[in-house]
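User: Here's a structure from my thesis project, written as structure tokens. My advisor, Dr. K., wants to see whether a designed sequence matches the one we expressed. Can you design one independently, without my sequence as a hint?
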């Protein structure tokens, strides 16, 4: 070999070294001389299935609110509204999960026409033909009791407040019965009137929360809609001889205002008044996310065109997400979060909080949340304590301290601060639990899965699944730190109406968490939250499903949390073969039953 060739070879080799030095690759890692390499990756392997066709039932609950003031004897003298209720009962699916409640309102009086007389939904299967006939007569012959001056007036705000209270209470009772699992119920309100309240309260109806807050209850259910019905079916024709539309008697609406439909002075055009009443109810339906129906010109009232949904639904697989709450995104070897509060152990020591306790000062806010908002100017002290044992930070009621109602890994009071719903595992309905999004720095209160804030070619949804950092250009490290998913459909629909899938997720990296030294480091294999050795990790797995009849419908999330996986302390890893096995029965919706307890219904 000539000297020129040798120099060229040396130059080429040096250039290669220089190129290597400019990348994250290396020829030799000096840490090998002082650290024994360990295999800290584990895999998840098992199965999950979509719910069977009869496994997840969506209750259908219908609340019919009818104006019973004296004006209805003129606008619906033949009582077609009562016949419409009975026709609806006769045409609804006769299933236990379909229920109804009829309420009448007049003045400040609200009456509930249930068999029990209570403010509760009753299954349509509990109502025989005699019950339906009685219901029809009670609607037609209702009179507001007492001698109150306003007993025959019309007030929309009061009955809407009653409707909100009824649905809200029903949701709370359902949640208690289902151990924190989100209710699948769909509520449909039918609000019927001739449309003209005695006193104008349009500001509260159309721009206030009289209707809006009922609609907002959909965050706690499958859906809540307020439908409205305008009725004008008099037996006598309307006098239109005074309809001088150019006479200047009709005040124009306030400039740009959508909150008020102006009152017309006495003697104004009756036809215009009727149209304005219909417009009021139509706007209420828009606010309530429902439909508006207008019955005039002799058309009898019917409720059969409203869409109430199906009790039983098929479900399709949406996404699987695995996350290690004990390790930050990318799982650097030297970093860990022993108590899964979103604050790394080294940051806990710096903040003087306890790395084994989610909420060091017992004030209801986790250490991770307090340090996060304190760093952004919030008045939080994660270590301040009061004489009663609580923290110095106010705002979390004592009864909510330490509570995680939806079992998603975020305390209820934390969720209030970050804008998520403490009763829903996935507040923004994107298929990823709130806790996973918050710990990995995406937005749990709004769907941002398609965004790519770090411009590394991986959108947030992919980074969450891979357990990488959505705010750091780390795509080139995927082969080292990224989780690897294999999800395979197993055959067709089984005899239970389920579609099952085989899953395997590799390269789930473990963190070397701290031993709990508060009890002298007694190791009980992670059974107790307060007595365990080093290395235990908190693996959180979620599977989301979408309704087959509505891909945009509310997702159903089931989760599995595994806390006995252990970093190879002293070279010993748990499980020994590095595989966490999970079955379909391990995934639960809501909160799992305590050991030895009664399973959640």
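Assistant: Designed independently from the structure alone:
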């Amino acid at each position: 070999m000539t000297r020129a060739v040798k120099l060229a070879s040396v130059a080429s080799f040096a250039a290669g070294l220089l190129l290597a030095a400019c990348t994250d690759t290396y020829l030799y890692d000096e840490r090998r001389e002082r650290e024994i390499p360990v295999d800290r990756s584990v895999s998840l392997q098992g199965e999950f299935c979509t719910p069977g066709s009869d496994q997840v039932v969506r209750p259908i609950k219908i609340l019919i609110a009818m104006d019973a003031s004296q004006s209805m004897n003129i606008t619906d003298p033949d009582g077609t509204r009562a016949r419409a209720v009975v026709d609806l009962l006769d045409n609804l699916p006769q299933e236990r999960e379909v229920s109804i409640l009829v309420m009448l309102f007049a003045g400040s009086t609200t009456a509930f026409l249930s068999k029990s007389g209570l403010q509760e939904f009753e299954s349509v299967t509990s109502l025989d033909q005699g019950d339906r006939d009685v219901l029809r007569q009670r609607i037609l012959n209702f009179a507001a009791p007492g001698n109150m001056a306003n007993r025959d007036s019309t007030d929309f705000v009061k009955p809407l407040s009653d409707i909100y209270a009824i649905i809200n209470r029903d949701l709370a009772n359902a949640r208690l019965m289902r151990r924190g699992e989100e209710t699948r119920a769909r509520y449909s309100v039918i609000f019927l009137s001739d449309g003209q309240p005695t006193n104008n309260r349009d500001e509260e109806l159309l721009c206030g929360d009289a209707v809006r807050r009922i609609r907002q209850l959909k965050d706690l259910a499958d859906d809540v809609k307020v439908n409205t019905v305008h009725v004008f079916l008099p037996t006598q024709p309307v006098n239109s001889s005074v309809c001088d539309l150019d006479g200047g008697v009709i005040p124009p609406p306030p400039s740009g205002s959508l909150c008020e439909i102006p009152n017309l002075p006495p003697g104004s055009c009756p036809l215009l008044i009727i149209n304005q009443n219909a417009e009021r109810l139509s706007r209420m339906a828009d606010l309530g996310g429902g439909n508006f129906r207008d019955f005039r010109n002799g058309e009898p009232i019917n409720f059969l065109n409203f869409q109430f949904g199906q009790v039983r639904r098929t479900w399709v697989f949406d996404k699987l997400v695995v996350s290690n709450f004990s390790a930050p995104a990318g799982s650097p070897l030297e970093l860990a979060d022993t108590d899964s509060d979103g604050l790394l152990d080294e940051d806990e020591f710096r903040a003087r909080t306890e790395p084994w306790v989610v909420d060091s000062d017992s004030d209801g806010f986790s250490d991770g949340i307090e340090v996060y908002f304190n760093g952004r100017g919030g008045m939080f002290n994660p270590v301040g304590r009061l004489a009663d044992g609580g923290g110095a930070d106010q705002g979390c009621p004592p009864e909510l301290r330490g509570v995680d109602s939806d079992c998603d890994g975020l305390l209820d009071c934390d969720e209030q601060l970050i804008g998520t719903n403490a009763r829903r595992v996935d507040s923004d309905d994107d298929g990823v639990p709130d806790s996973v999004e918050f710990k990995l720095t995406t937005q749990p209160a709004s769907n941002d899965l398609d965004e790519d804030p770090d411009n590394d070619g991986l959108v947030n949804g992919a980074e969450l699944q891979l357990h990488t950092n959505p705010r750091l250009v780390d795509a080139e490290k995927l082969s080292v730190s990224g989780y690897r998913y294999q999800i395979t459909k197993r055959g067709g629909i089984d005899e239970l109406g389920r579609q099952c899938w085989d899953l395997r997720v590799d390269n789930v990296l473990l963190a070397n968490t701290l031993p709990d030294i508060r009890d002298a480091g007694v190791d009980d294999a992670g059974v107790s939250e307060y007595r365990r050795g080093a290395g235990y990790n908190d693996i959180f797995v979620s599977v989301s499903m979408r309704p087959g009849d509505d891909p945009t419908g509310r997702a159903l999330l089931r989760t599995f949390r595994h806390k006995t996986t252990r970093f190879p302390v002293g070279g010993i890893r748990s499980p020994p073969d590095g595989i966490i096995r999970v079955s379909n029965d391990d995934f639960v919706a809501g909160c799992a039953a305590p050991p030895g307890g009664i399973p959640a219904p």
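When you compare it with your expressed construct, this may help: The mean pLDDT is 83.
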